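Weekly modeling sync, notes
Attendees: S.R. (lead), two postdocs, one rotation student

Agenda item 3: backlog of single-chain predictions. S.R. asked that every request posted to the team notebook include the full sequence so nobody has to chase files. The rotation student volunteered to paste the first one in as an example of the format we agreed on. Action items at the bottom.

Example entry:
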Amino acid sequence: MKLFLLLTLIAAFIVLQACGKPTMKSAGTSAKARPSLLKKPMELGFEQIVSDPRFKGLKMLGDVNKNGVDSIDGVLLRTLRLKNIADAVDARYGLTGPGTKGLVLAMVAHESGGADLLPNGSDDGGAGFSHMQPCTARQFGLNVYQNCNKLVDHEHGRALRALITVKHFDRKELIKYDDRLHPVLNLDAVGRMIATFIRSAPKNSNPAEYAMRRYSGRKEYYAAIMKWRSRLSDENLLAGMKSRFNAQNSNLTLNGAKIDCDGYLAACREQNKNYGLAKYIGK
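Predicted structure, as returned to the notebook:
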């Protein structure tokens, strides 16, 4: 029992440390590097560059409930809609090596399953595709609904869920209230967080594992992320998912033209351009 309590306190300390005032060690290796990672690189909103897609006959894989997506196929399908954003974040923060490439997208898969506007199921305040907690989001320069700056805040979590409902799940409106609901800004903050924690990893440690533990406070979190990272790059698994999607969507059309799973994913990624992706990549 004493050992269990000790481990629990250690995990809590790690999480609280991540939400505390950043030190030079935790934020980077120089004063110049610090603001570049703790501050969002630009303001992004919504601009209608790509017209809203008109899908007919669309049948998604898996179902979404309060706690996430109920199938691996469903998670892969929804998460891959964000791949062009995640790739841009990886490139921006140098998360392109064998130990770091794909971590951002894997965190989306694990946290929200790629489901749209799905807060943490326990309503603890976590939100965004990565379920970033309020204090972590604030630490990395994001605007948070109600200016919440707590690690866990159920009142805030319930209020945010209510806001999403009141605004009829309209992301274009919701991003005005909370940057975590902006797909590019949310994933960018994840990338900055990973890069920050990797810089402060102790010598002879696994930097990616250290970063994941700093984010979650849980040792097993890294293994879960690596499992999703592997799945998202498994060509056989992805081919199976696409095949099952195509079988279930034999009559799927986009703006009157027949499409398959690749066409569906391409159309979703095009929509990401409406949230400033080209500006993000080019600046």
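Discussion: group reviewed the output briefly. The longest strand covers residues 55-56.
Action items: rotation student to repeat for the remaining queue; S.R. to check formatting next week.
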